[in-house]
Amino acid sequence: MADVADVAEAAGAAGPLRQREFTDLEVPPARGGVREGLRGYGLIVAMWIRSTMTYRTSFALETLGNAAITLLDFAAIYIMFSHVDALGGFTLPEVALLYGSCSASLGLAGLLLGNTDRIGARIRDGSLDTMLVRPVPLLAQVAADRFALRRMGRIAQGLGLLGWALWSLEVDWTAGKVLLVPVMVLAGAAIFAAVMVAGAAFQFIAGDAAEVQNSFTYGGCTMLQYPPTIFATELLRAVTFIVPLAFVNWLPALYVLGRPDPLGLPGWAAFLSPLVALAVFVPASLAWRAGVRSYRSTGS
Amino acid sequence: MRQRVRQSVGQSAGRRVGLYAAVAAGGFRRYATYGTATAAGVFTNTVFGFIVAFTYIALWDQRPGLGGYDQSQALTFVWVSQSLLAAGALIGGGFQEELQERVRTGDIAVDLYRPADLQMWWLAADLGRAAFQLLGRGLVPLAAGALAFRLALPWDPWRWLLFLVSVGLGLVVSFALRYLLGLLAFWLLDGAGINLMATVVSIFFSGMLLPLTVFPGAFGEFVRVLPWAAMLQVPLDVLLGEHSGAGTAAGALAFQAGWVLVLLGIGRLLQSAGTRKVVVQGG
Questions:
Q1: Tally of CB atoms within 10 A around B18
Q2: Please, are residues B209 and B90 in contact by the beta-carbon 8 Å criterion?
Q3: What residues form the membrane-spanning segments (chain A) (predicted)?
Q4: Chain B closest CA to A201's CA: distance in Å?
Q5: Within an 8 Å CB–CB cutoff, is residue B148 touching chain A?
Q6: Can you give the C-alpha Rg of chain A in angstroms?
Q7: Domain boundaries defined on chain B
Q8: Cα(A103)–Cα(A107) distance, rounded to whole angstroms?
């Protein structure tokens, strides 16, 4: 881990590391916050990419594996459709639209800050303390930790299926629908990203609970790849109004497909995804701040 | 040196059994330590169980009897497979990363010095882990599923017994396969890529995404004889009574036992090839 500090120092990002008393841990001040954070993030990411490229065969296999994992998910759906013509009233290309968009969104969020779930392990082994004394905002370090370029595999695979779905569907294209497709993927990624930050914050209280976060991100995506019509109404309400995963792709995709929302939300709700993403970032970042502030080192 | 140590400790078979039992108990306790991680895992398995259950309901509503299951059998398949998933290390986890790391760092030399067989040592540790995860991660999701849906769990204690035997054999098949992955570190050094590919294969071919009986045609017949079928599909079919006659149940267990022998055997060959190759810097 010394190399992260080396990179930061070599680039002149900050002066010598200040030694702090471990009894008095505090968050590095957020002065110049966003720009400095992004810069630190970029440096750490660049380091991890260089490190990944040392084992090229492993990288190639991992990227392929990453794409293959999600493709096999779809293979299972494909096998389902070899037995039925429609699932919950949706055809295979329609399900592919849901599947591709959600997979691309999750892939993008996972690429940018997918390793935030490792924070629980870092709290447990005490290596979070090392991060706290570095002159880079903690969230940037946690997000860039072990940056995994192989996650491009999932993004490529998701976008590929999304493209196939849009090509094979006969959509009544309007300007709004054309705009909605990229907005859906990006806003979806932002919603997943907020969930990941909130999940990381939760681990300050719960300890090593990475799997809870996974059930909202990977579990959420497993749910969103199927039509909303097959799920119970209570579940739909929960993922629309409590953890608003329905805005990742269900509502925008239903609008593109010209289908009504099973909960009866109006059509314009499909365009709310970016606002929803902003709205979930507020509690997520508050939770993160509270988590960092409440952090007490394991002490060993 | 190693031979002599082994002889003195391994005088009686009883003591050796005691040794492996202690290793297994250690594996059990090690995983039992992380309460929150276990609770988080239970939560995840339950969430996934609900999601998959709804998709199966939609599928079996349209095609009752698909794959030879009725709807409640299909739902049982979902929830029991969520319960077995952590124990069988079907989506990763388990020990192979640790074994690879020990090969990479050279710690494996210490393991080879121990008066115990390398394969049996890891098998005992992994079965200890699996036993904990069977209880810690298996019971609650299954109970949640049984409360929320109508499952086809049998009343017959004999069938549960057969199921447990079949689960045990499945766990050993899973171990034997992951042991091969672990040993590959002698040649590959970085196992991350191969582990990920192995996880992909295991997710798909174990029947976790979709029962293997639903896979169509010749492809379906092919996937049902692969070792991954022995990890999840066969135990579930035993529980669901697809192998209800004594003859067919014996056939299913024999299928699993066959893969146990083949894979453990390959593991031994690979182990002796790997340990002959290993050169550890002294110091």
A1: 11
A2: no
A3: 59-81, 96-114, 155-173, 179-206, 235-256, 268-288
A4: 15
A5: no
A6: 21
A7: 2-277
A8: 6
DSSP string across A63-110: HHHHHHHHHHHHHHHHHHHTT-S-BTTB-HHHHHHHHHHHHHHHHHHH
How close B53 gets to chain A, by Cα (Å)? 9
Rounded to a whole number, what is the distance in Å from the CA of A46 to chain B's nearest CA? Answer: 20
Distance from CA of A300 to the nearest CA of B (A): 18
Q: Does B52 contact A at CB distance below 8 Å?
A: yes
A55 touches chain B (CB under 8 A): yes
What would the mean pLDDT of B109-120 be, rounded to a whole number? Answer: 88
B209-213 long-range CB contacts below 8 Å, 24 or more apart?
B209/A72, B209/A73, B209/A76, B210/A76, B210/A79, B210/A80, B211/B67, B211/B69, B211/B74, B211/B77, B211/B236, B213/B67, B213/B68, B213/B69, B213/B237
**Residue A186 — very low, low, confident or very high, per pLDDT cuts 50/70/90?**
very high
CA distance linking residue A42 with residue B26, whole number of Å: 43
How does pLDDT run across B131-177, given as a tens digit for each residue? Answer: 999 999 999 999 999 999 999 999 999 999 999 999 999 999 999 99
pLDDT mean over A122-126: 84
Confidence of residue B246 (pLDDT cuts 50, 70, 90): low
Give A14→chain B minimum CA distance, Å.
34
Cβ of residue B98 closer than 8 Å to a chain A Cβ = no
B219 touches chain A (CB under 8 A): no
Q: What φ, ψ does residue A259 adopt, rounded to 5°?
A: -110, 150
A72–B214 CB contact, under 8 Å = no
Whether chain A has a CB inside 8 Å of the CB on B55: the answer is yes
How far, CA to CA in Å, does B238 sit from each of A101, B66, B160, B269? 38, 18, 9, 32
For residue A206, give every residue at least 6 positions away whose Cβ sits within 8 Å of its Cβ, in sequence order, or none: A120, A212, B36, B40
| B282 shares contact with chain A (CB less than 8 Å) | no
* Token pair of B76 as six digits: 């049982």
A210 → closest Cβ in B40, B197, B203: B40
Phi and psi dihedrals of B92, rounded to 5?
Answer: 90, -170
**Contact predicate A147/A115, CB 8 Å:** yes
What's the whole-number average pLDDT of chain B?
A: 89
> To probe the interface with A, which of B209, B210, B222 has the most A CB atoms within 10 Å?
B209
The amino acid present at A145, given as its one-letter code, is D
Question: Would you call A83 and B59 a contact, using CB atoms and an 8 Å cutoff?
Answer: yes
**pLDDT for residue A14 is more than 70:** no
Place of tokens 């024999």: B254
The chain B residue lying nearest A203, using CA atoms, is B36
Q: Residue B5: CB partners within 8 Å, gap ≥ 6? A: B113, B115
Q: What is the pTM of this model?
A: 0.85
